Amino acid sequence: MPIRRQEGPAAGRLIAVEGCDGSGKSTQLRLLHRYLLRLGLPVHLSSWNSSPVVHPISQSGKRSRRLFGLSYALFNAADFADRYEREILPRLDLGQIVLCDRYVGTALARDGARGLDPLWTKSLYAYARPADLTFLFRLPPEVAAYRVLAGRKRFGYYEAGLDLAQNSDPLASFVQFQGAVLDHYLRLAPDLDYRLIDATAGLRAQQAELRRQALELLTVSPRPTVAAV
Is residue 155 part of a domain? Predict the structure, then answer.
């Protein structure tokens, strides 16, 4: 059955975050989610590659390192399609706010960094409505690598782009691959109206900017008693 396309304007609002791994986008979106819930708004958080149908299969492929450029991209597209049909679009139809921890831009940037045709990738996600607001967290890949290793012992195989076999050293490969991902994001930013966030700034400053722009989109007045984080 084909994926249902949205007809007419959506009642709900879709806010997404994009950026290379280690940029802090997921942390900032979770904080925004918690804040909007405290305001009593109908908000839902959806994460990349989290479909209960597709995710277990793709994880198996990742663990065995059997996924490469095309198959990796197709699994991500299938995961997104399942979540979009079952999770994202129904909530937008109901007038809810959907926060997406990575959206179509993630596929465009990562597939592009893996050398796939951007027009082909776009065709896979042509049914998806554009986000109403997208934040792009900009962080040098060297700093992103430091942050990732501060939280765990090693990089993920695909996170570091080791599947591309461009560099056998995980750190060097991570910096090279995530740098390419960031380059693709920055090329997309003007056309897709991404709002750039300086991910080297303090956590509170970044969160304050997300809240300001999100409340402006949602036309909600902030509560002065709510702390910045």
Answer: yes
Residue 96 to residue 119: CA distance in whole angstroms = 31
Number of domains in the chain: 1
Q: What are phi and psi of 17, to 5 degrees?
A: -120, 145
* Residue 35 belongs to some domain of the structure: yes
- The residue whose two tokens read 């967290």 is 137
Q: Looking at residue 37, which CATH number applies to its domain?
A: 3.40.50.300
User: How far is 196 from 213, CA to CA, in rounded Å?
Assistant: 12
Tally: H helices and E strands in the chain: 9, 5
Per-residue confidence (pLDDT) for residue 5, from 0 to 100:
52
Burial tier of 224 (Cβ tally within 10 Å: 0-12, 13-18, 19+):
exposed
Successive 10-residue mean pLDDT values, the chain, 229 residues: 50 96 97 97 97 93 90 96 97 97 98 96 97 98 96 94 93 97 97 97 98 93 51
Name the nearest CA neighbour of 16 among 217, 223, 179, 227: 217
17: in domain = yes
Q: Could you tell me the end-to-end alpha-carbon distance of the chain, in angstroms, rounded to an integer?
A: 43
pLDDT for 159 equals 96
Give the three-state DSSP class for 147. Answer: helix
| Domain extent for 123 | 13-218
Residue 8 in any domain: the answer is: no
Torsion 69-129-43-147 (CA) sign: positive
Question: DSSP assignment, residue 84?
Answer: I
